[in-house]
Amino acid sequence: MRVLGINQGHNGSAAYVxxxxxxxxxxxxxxxxxKYDGNPFRGMLEAIKEGxxxxxxxxxxxxxxxxxxxxxxxxxxxVRKFNPKVKIIxxxxxxxxxxAATAFYNSGFETAIAIVIDGSGSHHTYSxxxxxxxxxGFETETVFSCEYPSKFEPLHKQYGTNDPMGHVSxxxxxxxxxxxxxxxxxxxxxxxxxxxxxxKTMGLSAYGGPDESLPDFFTEGKSNKNVFxxxxxxxxxxxPDVMQKNDHSHQCQEESTCTTEFTDLxxxxxxKIQNDTQELVGDxxxxxxxxxxxxxxxxxxxxxxxxxxxxxxxxxxxxINLYVDPTSHDxxxxxxxxxxxxxxxxxxxxxxxxxSLYLGVTTETxxxxxxxxxxxxxxxxxxxxxxxxxxxxxxxxxxxxxEAGPRALGNRSILYDPxxxxxxxxxxxxxxxxxxxxxxGTILKEHFDEWFETRCxxxxxxMMYAMNLDESKHGEVPAITHNDGSCRIQTVDxxxxxxxxxxxxxxxxxKDIPILFNTSxxxxxxPLVETLEDGIETLKKSEIDFLYLPECNKIIxxxx
Length: 560
Description:
Elements: E1 2-7, E2 13-18, E3 21-27, H1 28-32, H2 41-48, E4 54-58, H3 74-80, E5 87-90, H4 95-107, E6 111-117, E7 123-126, E8 135-147, E9 151-161, E10 166-169, E11 172-176, H5 180-190, H6 198-205, E12 218-219, E13 222-223, E14 228-231, E15 235-238, H7 264-291, E16 296-300, H8 307-316, E17 321-324, H9 333-346, E18 375-379, H10 382-390, E19 395-398, E20 412-416, H11 423-431, E21 440-444, H12 448-451, E22 466-468, E23 486-492, H13 498-511, E24 515-520, H14 532-540, E25 546-549, E26 554-558
Parallel strand pairs: 1-4, 4-5, 6-16, 9-11, 16-17, 19-25, 21-23
Antiparallel strand pairs: 1-2, 2-3, 6-8, 7-8, 8-9, 10-11, 12-13, 14-15, 18-26, 19-20, 20-24, 21-24, 22-23, 25-26
Helix pairs in contact: 4-9, 5-7, 6-7, 7-8, 10-13
C-alpha cells in the first residue's frame, strides 16, 4: 500500500509511506526555495514517480480551491494524471488528529496519551447540547487516547472563538479569548517578530526575568482578556491600553539590524510568556495523568518545538515516558495522516518507531565537481577538517539525505569550534541572525551524561531539549552556552551518522572537547539547504570558509 500524505498551508510538506514504512518526508520550501511554501507540488512529484495508491490531503480546512474545468482541487488533479484510480481522502478537518498520529506512530509506544498544543487547528462549527446559536471555532488544545492500529479517542478538545459559548459537550470546550499558543504568538508579535517566529521569543526569554510591572498574562489558567485581544482566525494581539505597542520591528533584514537592543521590559515579557505557558501546559499534562492510568505521553503541535519547555517537562514529570515529536510543526502532520490511512485500512499493528530524521529526497553523486566555476575542490580527511574547526574556520557539512523538521543534525549543518568565546557573535553575523539567538551543539553520545544534566534521558538524537550544562563544564563551550546556562543538544553515535561521529571524534582528539557547534546550513530568511547546488550557492554568498563533503572525502572553498 502506497500512501502519499500532504500538508497544505505554511510548512507545506509531503510524506510517502509504503506498507507502513516512512520512505521520505520533505518540506516544500526545501525544494522550491520559498520560505514557508504551502503548496507541496514538488514533494508530491517525488512520490508520484514511485507510485501512489492513496492521496490524503491535510491542512486546517477541506475547502480547497477547485479547478473550474474539472471541479477538482489541484492536488487531486496532479495525482490523478498519473493514476486515474488513485483514492483521495480529505483530512482537512483532522488537523490535531494528524499531529497526534505523527507523534504516536513515531514514538514506539503501544498505547499513549497524545497532547496537541497548537495555534490554530481545523475549523469547525458547533452548537451546544442544549441548542442555541452555532459558533465557529478552531482547535487549540486536544488530548487523545491512542492505541494501535488507529484508535484516536478525544478525551478533551478546546476551541478558540470570538464568541462565548462555554462547554459544548463533556469532552469539548469552546473558549472565548486567547489560548496558550495564541498568547505566545501575541507576545512574539509585540516584540517585533512575525508571529510564526516564536523561537526567537524563546531565545530572548533567557535574558529576562520576573517583572512586577508586567500584567498577569493568565488568570485561573486562562488568558487575561484585558491583555490579549483575539483576532481570529489569524491570531491575537496585546492591548495597547495595557502594554504600549512597540513602534519598531526587531526583524533582522540586514546585518546592521541584527545588533538591535531590547528593553528590559521586552526581555522580561519574553521570559514571562515562556514561563507562564510551560506551566500551563505542565498543568494540562498533570490533569491528564490524574485522570488516566497511562504512563506514556506524546507531545505535538507547534508548542512541541519549544525545547526549553520540553526540558522543564522532563523535570516536572520524571516518572512518565515522554516523547516529543521532532516534526511537531504543521509540516509533520503529513506523516501522521499517511500512517493513519495505512494502519486503519490494513489493521496492521506493527510498531515502527522513528529511528532517523534523514528523510529528504536529495541524493548526490558528486560528479564533475571540478567543472563548477568559482570553487576549489580538494581531497580531505576527518582529521584535516577537524583541524580547520580547531583553527576556528567555519565549515558547512553536506551529506546524504536532508533532515526532516527544523533541526540540523549533521547532514545539512554549519559547524564551528564551541570553545570560542566570540563564536556566537561571529556565526550570527555570518548567518545574518539576531545577536541573542543561541546555537546548538552535537556531542558524542558516550559523553552525554558527563557534560549535561540529562534528567534521565539516555540520548537526544533529535535535538528536542535545551539542557543545562553540568556545573563542572561551565565556561568550557561558551559558543553554544545560552545566557541561562543551557544548550540545545544533539547526541550522535556511529550507527546514527558515521561521518559526523568520526569528525567529532577527531575534533575531540585535538581539543579534548567531544562537542561541535552545530547550526542549520542556511542564511537568515532562507530554507535549509537541500541540494549540493543550494549548498555551493550559500557558500558563495556567505563568509563560510569551507563546504565539507564526507561521502567523497572532498572539501570546497571559494576562489577569491
